[in-house]
């Protein structure tokens, strides 16, 4: 048998290939294998690598529920000039798969914003936090299309655009929208916001 074996699956026009390697068989203990997935990040400049080692399997298949592919370490990804997304290698980040291959990605991550754009404030005193502190937002979601997604955000602190304290914001029901095909269903834009049609609305990308 020539290794690695590949299980291909196409979801929303995107191909996902899970590689199976180091396959072994034991008459008393059953079979074991290692599974890997290389997942390019949105924009194609970075790549996430997932793995599941020593996955037990039988003629009926693998124990997919307990064989999720996970990150080996945190993965920082540049979103734009003001924010970095760090995918966390914890229990909230994994790839689900089955005999058909890739099923979906669940992601746990945090976004860190440049301090010269957004300044974090203490929630009790409404004073700027020390210079070493950065505003962060966390997110957790299950997605099937990694190239275009929308997720809810939870911000770590109130924030302002500078340190003078005149305008301090608390963000609730915030989102990151990286999709060209949809926007969050309950997202409401200001009246007379310049969208020419539904497609223009869907192409809009931003933090909201």
Explain what this protein looks like in three dimensions.
There is one protein chain. The chain has 208 residues and is mainly β. It has one domain (5-207). The protein contains 1 helix and 16 strands. It is elongated and about 70 Å long. The mean pLDDT is 85.
Radius of gyration: 21 Å
Distance N to C terminus: 51 Å
In DSSP terms, counting alpha (H) and pi (I) runs of 4 or more, how many helices? 1
Percent range for helical residues? Answer: under 10%
Counting DSSP E segments of at least 2 residues, the number of strands comes to 16
Low-confidence stretches: none
* Class based on secondary structure composition and strand pairing: mainly beta
Biggest sheet overview: 8 strands, antiparallel
Mean of residue pLDDT values: 85
Structural domain tally? 1
- Name the overall outline: elongated
Strand content: over 45%
Helix-strand pattern, N to C?
A: EEEEEEEEEEEEEEEHE
Question: What is this entry, summarized?
Answer:
3% of the residues lie in helices and 47% in strands. It is mainly beta.
Features of this protein?
single chain; 208 residues; mainly beta; 8-stranded antiparallel beta sheet
SSE layout:
Layout: E1 5-11, E2 14-26, E3 30-40, E4 47-58, E5 61-62, E6 70-71, E7 75-78, E8 83-87, E9 94-98, E10 101-113, E11 119-120, E12 136-143, E13 150-155, E14 159-160, E15 174-177, H1 198-203, E16 206-207
